[in-house]
Predict the structure.
Amino acid sequence: MTTTSGLNIVHTESSCGWGGQEIRILTEAHGMQRRGHRMTIVCPPEAPIYTAAQKLGIAAVALPIARKNLRGLFALRAWLKQQRDIGVLNTHSSTDSWLVAVARLTLRGDAPIVRTRHVSTHIGNNWPTRWLYQEATRHIVTTGEALKQQLVSENKFDPTRMTSVPTGIDLERFHPRDAHAARRTLELDTARNYLGIVATLRNWKGHTYLLQAFAALVSRYPGWDLIIVGDGPQRHNLERLIGELGLGKCVHMIGNREDVQTWFNTFDIFALPSYGEEGVSQSAMQALASG
């Protein structure tokens, strides 16, 4: 479907990580671009989303916005000053939301700021935060109804200025496939069973608990391997724990993969023992869609 008059939509993302949030931004931007809108993603040059956007044919602008500092503020302000026809400014993380809001204080233009909340981290009730969410921001989008209700109950934000847009899954990509064929494609032993997790290697995703549980069960279930798909800041710590638990031969750390849908189809069981900032788990839904 193509619109008759597209908007110029700018997404900002200060995070230098890679996970469900970044994937959702790209998926949404790609879909909106296909509908006739002009999309731009503003992010740090070192952020994985920068190169990922370019691969999808989405315009990407590299600015030093990974931290809340004057360098990032001035760079973002200078770039925004040059833009004449922005229809929507969609911010995604705390840092870029603050930089955009402060930069807009000194610029002409009425492009509304839309703040998307991806995680369930508690938001402070201090006046600067209320200004950011209720004054500087025109509308709040949450990635699930529970996140919206959290902002209403804990922060007393105006529910009429919030919309829940649940994260979707591409069912053409994630669907049941033959497990043996998937394992042969990935050169895995078709005679073994596989427990799998697909998640960024952050502490609150619960990889440590999964490894400890697997270590306690592996002697009773010697035919099972654990596959960890994803990368992140906890990789070194998890590799050390795997060694300490003596799991080197039956735990496989695969890293980030573009063929993640095939990995889902190799798993007999999917696990996601996250306990912290989960908003809407894309990997859990992808696993369900994959059967």
About this structure: The chain has a mean pLDDT of 94. DSSP finds eleven helices and eleven strands in the chain. The first strand starts at residue 8 and ends at 12. The longest helix spans residues 20-34.
